């Protein structure tokens, strides 16, 4: 978790550099294909799992930008879905769709929004529950695409910042309930608990850490369940057994070395983002092991076995392994743990 926080805090300058590079880049000419190559390309296109990441509202637009920088563009299509006239922190790098809202806060130009998502198989929606227009846009996209193709819908939302009073924070409950009804799984990142992980001087970096967490989850699910360059991965049908119709989910992160897998698991399960979870009530688990170059498949399998011993036998539990592109050490190991079936009063 510490490395993720450090990466998120260093992100603004990297984004500025990426924006400059993107402005200077020109698309390379596409070579002509013969008839056989064209037929093969059409066949591959028909087998491809179409993944869309839609950042909804102001907060979602930032996560869509991060997706366009970090996730393989051949696997994922990111979009920033924003309200026309609403000010943004920066101009989105991802393709932007601006919409107008009617008097009830719902999009008025439905076809303009839905056209890029006609053939979506896996749909990620990112927003903040503090952003009412972002929640409305996310709910609208999920509900409308379900009528066309019924994609697997995974929403990633952050809870509103804690209120200064001692009253429970009810802001965003309506948005959460709306997303819950139209999403297969809603991964909830609890802002209040996240801030407890940050030093007081870095509390303002919480939104960037939330974006990094969302991208870590998306990157892991895509790498393991869609076809990324992973030594151990699943297929899309496997992915649906964990995330289809499993409601609320929480994230745990752990890191360490392959010599001490139990410590990596203990850190993930003890994460403040998870809280005191009753593992016997979990309905599904997905976990990704991100390993350094010297970590072997048997070592990763040992960590996966340790995770499985903590979970109920009856639930779908799937995992995969990918390589860390910039490890701290040759034997470094990171564990991304997503547990589904959390109780709704608990996560908000």
Distance between the termini: 22 Å
CATH fold-level topology of the largest domain? Rossmann fold
Shape: globular
Unreliable residue stretches: 21-27, 165-171
Order of helices and strands: HHHEHEEHEHEHEHHHEHEHEEH
Please provide a written account of the structure:
This protein is of the alpha/beta class and 348 residues long. The protein has 2 domains: 48-163 and 171-228, Tubulin/FtsZ, GTPase domain (Rossmann fold, 3-Layer(aba) Sandwich), CATH 3.40.50.1440; 250-347, Tubulin/FtsZ, C-terminal domain (60s Ribosomal Protein L30, Chain: A), CATH 3.30.1330. Helices cover 41% and strands 21% of the residues. It has helices at residues 2-9, 11-24, 35-47, 57-70, 110-114, 132-148, 173-182, 191-197, 206-227, 236-243, 261-269, 297-309, 344-347; strands spanning 51-56, 76-83, 96-99, 122-128, 152-158, 185-189, 247-257, 284-291, 317-323, 332-342. It has a 10-stranded mixed β-sheet, with helices on both faces. Helix 7 links the parallel strand 5 (152-158) and strand 6 (185-189). Helix 4 (57-70) crosses helix 9 (206-227). It is globular, with a radius of gyration of 20 Å. Residues 21-27 and 165-171 have low confidence and may be disordered.
């Amino acid at each position: 978790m510490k490395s993720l926080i450090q990466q998120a805090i260093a992100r603004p300058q990297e984004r500025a550099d990426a924006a400059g590079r993107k402005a200077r880049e020109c698309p390379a000419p596409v070579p002509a294909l013969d008839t056989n190559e064209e037929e093969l390309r059409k066949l591959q296109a028909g087998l491809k799992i179409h993944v869309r990441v839609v950042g909804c509202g102001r907060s979602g637009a930032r996560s869509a930008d991060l997706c366009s920088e970090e996730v393989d563009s051949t696997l994922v299509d990111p979009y920033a879905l924003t309200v026309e006239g609403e000010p943004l922190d920066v101009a989105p790098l991802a393709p932007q769709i601006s919409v107008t809202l009617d008097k009830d806060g719902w999009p008025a130009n439905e076809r303009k929004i839905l056209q890029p998502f006609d053939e979506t198989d896996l749909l990620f929606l990112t927003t903040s529950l503090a952003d009412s227009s972002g929640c409305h846009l996310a709910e609208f996209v999920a509900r409308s695409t379900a009528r066309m193709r019924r994609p697997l819908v995974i929403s990633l939302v952050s809870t509103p910042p804690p209120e200064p009073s001692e009253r429970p924070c009810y802001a965003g409950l309506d948005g959460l309930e709306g997303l819950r009804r139209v999403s297969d799984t809603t991964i909830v990142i609890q802002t209040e608990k996240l801030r407890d992980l940050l030093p007081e001087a870095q509390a303002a970096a919480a939104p960037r850490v939330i974006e990094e967490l969302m991208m870590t989850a998306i990157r892991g699910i895509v790498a393991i369940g869609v076809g990324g360059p992973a030594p151990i991965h699943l297929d899309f049908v496997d992915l649906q057994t964990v995330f289809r119709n499993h409601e609320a989910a929480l994230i745990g992160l752990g890191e360490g070395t392959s010599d001490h897998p139990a410590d990596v698991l203990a850190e993930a399960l003890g994460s403040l983002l998870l809280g005191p979870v009753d593992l016997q009530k979990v309905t599904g688990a997905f976990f990704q092991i991100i390993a350094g170059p010297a970590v072997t498949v048997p070592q990763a399998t040992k960590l996966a076995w340790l995770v499985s011993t903590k979970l109920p036998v009856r639930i779908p539990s799937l995992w995969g392994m990918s390589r860390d592109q910039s490890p701290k050490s040759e034997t470094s190991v990171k564990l991304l743990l997503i547990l589904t079936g959390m109780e709704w009063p608990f996560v908000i």
